[in-house]
Design a protein that fits this description.
The structure holds 2 protein chains of 2 kinds.
Chain A lengths: L13 H20 L6 H5 L2 H34 L5 H8 L1 H4 L2 H12 L6 H6 L8 H27 L2 H8 L4 H30 L2 H6 L10 H11 L1 H27 L3
Helix pairs in contact in A: 3-8, 3-10, 3-12, 6-8, 8-10, 9-10, 10-13, 12-13
Chain B lengths: L2 E7 L4 E7 L4 E5 L6 H9 L6 E6 L2 E5 L4 E2 L9 E2 L11 H5 L1 H5 L4 H14 L15 H14 L5 E4 L10 H12 L4 E5 L2 H7 L2 E6 L2 E7 H6 L4 H7 L2 E8 L2 E4 L4 E3 L11 E6 L4 E4 L8 E14 L2 E6 L3 E5 H7 L6 E7 L4 E4 L1
Parallel strand pairs in B: 3-9, 3-10, 7-8, 8-9
Antiparallel strand pairs in B: 1-2, 1-4, 4-5, 5-6, 10-11, 12-13, 12-15, 13-14, 15-21, 16-20, 17-18, 17-20, 18-19
Helix pairs in contact in B: 4-5, 5-6
Chain lengths: 263, 347
């Protein structure tokens, strides 16, 4: 392996850099060495595993859809308008990125729970959200939404407004500009945001277990299943963990792919 | 369609009043930062002036005092910039069809219109190309077609040839000359040739104000602004009239000929060609001539001649003269011009 030095990075920097890389990669290697390959397939296809995997995929897909529906308008408002308190609003929207998920879960409980802020309204409508699959989707959307907003707002700013201005002077109304110019131009950023949101939703644990609980087939997603199996069947936990690692690697590949075709 | 515009944009120090007749092409000339693009942006509805009103035909585009503001998409004023800005995700024909589609035409109708316009700018064979596969000149021709396909009531061209390779500019100029015929348009340009070939009338802007306007030929032959004189390659001295002379702010008296009666003590300009200016190192004696002491700033070779630029004026001399008089930047010289070579008229 040869290192091409473009600017003067001091050689000693390579040592902590290599340590850092090992710190990230080594645990993954350790995980792979612990996989019982003989029973791998049967472990990940057991009833409870399959139920958890299927639930995770369904809820993550639903959350990603919600992130697109809510996140795209949010990113547009943040990137294309100016109003008082905009930077404060942006900080608040990004809060779930840095908030401990368990705190998010408690906050959601006191919003949508039976005794929560919107609980009575929801009760009147005859809905029961807490500890349901809907709660899983809400928890996942709560933590994943900032990824969509950040990714898309960045792309919107990079693309700029020049094409939109041209489209308007050619007689296109704002909705036409959005549909025929803005969205096609930011599609790579939108795709990257969707993939990142999906990944974040798939890995969500803290907010889910706090707000939705752990009911097999209803709210017990793959991360929750792994956490439970760790006590009773460590081999199954390791096998399922590897499934999530593979998904994560695929996600990174997808994001890199969409970014490299970005404008 | 005729345009009447009054606009003030405070933070760019622009304050203009402009009228354009139906079917007239007006060139806005001026140095960088003169506010030319700001004027176009205000007409197109891309920038909101602080005060003023704009009327296109019978249609009020904006009237800040009355609170009227038509959005850009409703104005019918297509804007073509330096950069073609073709939508990168659409091929050439769909770019051109964008305007008709936005106006509610069907896909087939829009494509047919687009093909007509592509043919008009000699780009029919590029219809299926993506913008990334087009050269700068091709892309700008297609951008022209796209602007025209939107059927603008007034076409706004903001230095449409500034970003083009110099070799494709003449072809582009021909295309514009053809498509602008009989159309109301404003073209912002640096190039006097654009004004001469494309425009019926010239407006010169300096420092956010219109300093001169008139038929292209007249502005070039009898400039009243420093910029106008500069693009016409003429010397211009400004001051107050004293008989058939101009007294400048710095106290120089420029004698010349006036072919119209010039009221005493009014704003006037003295204009003369650099080729009429002689350069001396000693002040010449005798003869009723204008003499100006000045310092050489730069020498610019022009074929067999050299243009000597001083602080205010330019003189064209031959190479042997440059060598003989040892003319170099920084040297103090005396510029001499006969009164019979100087034209004086009201500013």
């Amino acid at each position: 392996m040869s290192l091409t030095q473009q600017s003067g990075v001091p050689r000693w920097v390579l040592v902590p850099a290599a340590l850092g890389a090992a710190f990230v990669v080594l645990p993954l290697v350790a995980l792979v060495t612990r996989v019982e390959w003989g029973s791998f397939f049967s472990l990940i296809t057991s009833d409870s595993s399959q139920a958890a995997l299927w639930l995770s995929l369904r809820t993550s897909a639903a959350s990603t859809l919600l992130c697109v529906v809510l996140g795209v308008p949010m990113a547009l408002v943040l990137a294309r308008t100016t109003f008082r308190g905009q930077s404060l609003l942006r900080s608040l929207v990004l809060l779930p990125l840095v908030l401990p998920p368990v705190v998010g879960g408690i906050a959601l409980l006191y919003t949508f729970g039976r005794k929560g802020l919107l609980g009575e309204t929801i009760d009147v409508l005859g809905l029961q959200i807490a500890f349901s699959t809907t709660a899983v989707v809400i928890a996942q959307t709560f933590v994943a939404l900032p990824f969509m907003v950040v990714s898309l707002e960045g792309t919107l700013r990079t693309v700029g407004e020049r094409y939109e201005v041209v489209a308007a002077t050619l007689g296109a109304r704002p909705t036409t500009v959005l549909r025929r110019v803005t969205l096609p131009l930011v599609l790579p950023g939108l795709a990257a945001g969707a993939v990142l949101s999906f990944a974040r939703a798939l890995g969500e644990f803290g907010a889910t277990i706090t707000f939705a609980g752990s009911l097999e087939g209803v709210t017990r997603t793959l991360p929750l299943e792994i956490y439970l199996q760790r006590e009773t069947d460590p081999d199954a936990a390791v096998a399922l963990s590897l499934v999530l690692v593979v998904v994560a690697v695929l996600v990174i590949g997808l994001v890199r792919g969409t970014r490299s075709t970005a404008l | 369609m005729s345009l009447h515009l009054e606009a003030t944009v405070a933070d760019r120090d622009v304050d203009v009043s402009l009228d354009i007749a139906d079917g007239e092409v007006v060139a806005i000339l001026g140095p960088n930062g003169a506010g030319k693009s700001t004027v176009l942006a205000a007409i197109a509805g891309v920038l909101r002036p602080d005060a003023g009103r704009g009327v296109l035909g019978d249609d009020v585009l904006f009237d800040i005092g009355a609170g009227t503001w038509q959005p850009a998409y409703a104005r019918g004023t297509a804007l073509l910039a330096q950069d073609p800005l073709l939508f990168p995700h659409l091929d050439a024909v769909d770019n051109v069809a964008f305007g008709p589609r936005s106006a509610g035409r069907t896909r087939a109708q829009s494509r047919a219109t687009a093909m007509t316009w592509l043919a008009e700018v000699d780009a029919a064979e590029l219809a299926r190309r993506k913008p990334s596969d087009l050269s700068g000149g091709q892309a700008q021709r297609i951008a022209v077609a796209r602007a025209l396909a939107a059927e603008p009531r007034l076409l706004l061209l903001d230095e449409p040839m500034a970003a083009l390779d110099i070799t494709v500019v003449p072809a582009m100029r021909q295309v514009l000359k053809r498509v602008l015929a009989g159309r109301s348009a404003i073209i912002v340009t640096h190039d006097v040739l654009d004004a001469l070939l494309l425009a019926d009338r010239v407006v010169v802007m300096e420092g956010g104000r219109i300093v001169e306007e008139g038929p292209t030929k007249e502005v070039l032959e009898r400039p009243r602004s420093t910029f106008g004189a500069g693009i016409a390659g003429l010397n211009l001295m400004r001051g107050r009239s004293v008989g058939t002379a101009v007294c400048t702010a710095s106290g120089s008296l420029v004698s010349g000929l006036s072919d119209e009666s010039l009221p005493e003590d009014t704003d006037a300009v003295a204009v003369f060609s650099p080729s009429a200016v002689g350069v001396y190192v000693e002040p010449p004696a005798g003869s009723p001539r204008n003499v100006f002491a000045s310092t050489i700033r730069e020498l610019e070779p022009r074929g067999a001649q050299v243009r000597v630029r001083t602080d205010e004026l330019s003189a064209d001399v031959t190479l042997p003269v440059v060598a003989e008089l040892d003319l170099v930047p920084g040297k103090q010289v005396f510029l001499v011009v006969k009164a019979s070579e100087v034209t004086i008229y009201p500013a």
